[in-house]
Amino acid sequence: MIFFWAFVVGGLFCVIGQILFDVFKLNPGVALTIFVVSGAVLEGIGLYRPLINFAGAGATVPITNFGNQLVEGAMQEAEQHGLIGVVTGIFEVTSAGISAAIIFGLIGAFLFKPKG
Question: Which InterPro entries does its entry note (predicted)?
Fold first, then answer.
């Protein structure tokens, strides 16, 4: 059943994104920002972790999880280091994903030639 719910929840994120594009005529940058901020807000009010427990990869793969990770890291570090932990926690938790994206993007740029 976890695969079913992952598919349903991940699909709902896609439906919401398509509605943002088609109905509200938002550009991808604005839609991306809405997803990241909504993930952060849901984590801040304690609803994103239950969503992850329910849907698994359906909630951890979308961009909303990036907002979730930002808030989660900031809150964990704030408990340990106070106010400075809010800033350092954001960088500590997200640095691996951002570093991987930069490294794989660079490798892709070396391996493939752009068309255009």
Answer: Spore_V_AE (IPR014204), SpoVA (IPR005562)
